[in-house]
Amino acid sequence: MGKSRRTVQIVILCLILVLGGYAITTSVSGSNGKPKEGDQAPSFELLGLDGQVHTSDEYQGKAMVINFWGTWCEPCVKEMPALQAQADKWKDKGVQFVGINVGEDQMTVDNFVRQVGVTFPIMLDRDKNSVRDYGISPMPTTFFVSETGKISTIHIGQLDLDTLDAQISQLAKQP
Fold first, then answer.
1. Distance between CA atoms of 57 and 82, rounded to whole angstroms?
2. pLDDT at 137
3. Rounded distance between C-alpha atoms, residue 68 and residue 155, angstroms
4. Homologous superfamily assigned to 31-172
5. What is the DSSP string of 21-74?
6. How far is it, in rounded angstroms, from Cα 133 to Cα 123?
7. Confidence of residue 174 (pLDDT cuts 50, 70, 90)
8. What is the end-to-end Cα distance of the chain in Å, rounded?
9. What is the Cα–Cα distance from 102 to 92, expressed in whole angstroms?
10. Any stretches that span the bilayer, and where are they (predicted)?
């Protein structure tokens, strides 16, 4: 009885060591599936506030600013006017803005968008598939994606008008 119990304990300890080693290795090596600058931006297929399903393929050949946000996130709400101002400024220059709302219902998001005056496309990530694919943790998080679909810059946290303008100017110069 004692010998059998000891064997089980050793097997469990070995499993813990192997899994722990794997977790540390993947964390250190950065192969946790989270996209990085220079990677191809993950694709998405999401319901828009317009009632249509939209995919990232619709925006091929355009530079993109993809912003993950929520109405409950104070920095997200504060940066929305700056995003709208930049969307207006860059819309005729080949830069597409897309807001991806994280997990909220359509009525809440629609009311917020109308109240703030957002006109760029807003998508609903109800199941948080895009959040997982993009590795979003804190919000807001904004991805600047080149015309070729590669991630140029990832900005975590609230953007102000000047930072946003500088990032988009840089993005617009990239092939």
1. 26
2. 85
3. 11
4. Glutaredoxin (3.40.30.10)
5. HHHHHHHHHT-SS---TTSBPPP-EEEETTSSEEEGGGGTTSEEEEEEE-TT-H
6. 15
7. low
8. 69
9. 27
10. none
Tell the residue number behind the tokens 């006017």, with chain if given: 81
What's the chain's average pLDDT?
87
Report strand pairing: 53-55 vs 122-125: unpaired
pTM of the model: 0.79
Q: How far apart are CA 173 and CA 86, in angstroms?
A: 16
Domain assignments of the chain as residue spans, ordered by start: 1-30, 31-172
Phi-psi region of 107 (alpha: psi -120 to 50; beta: other; left: phi over 0): alpha
Please name the amino acid found at residue 5: R
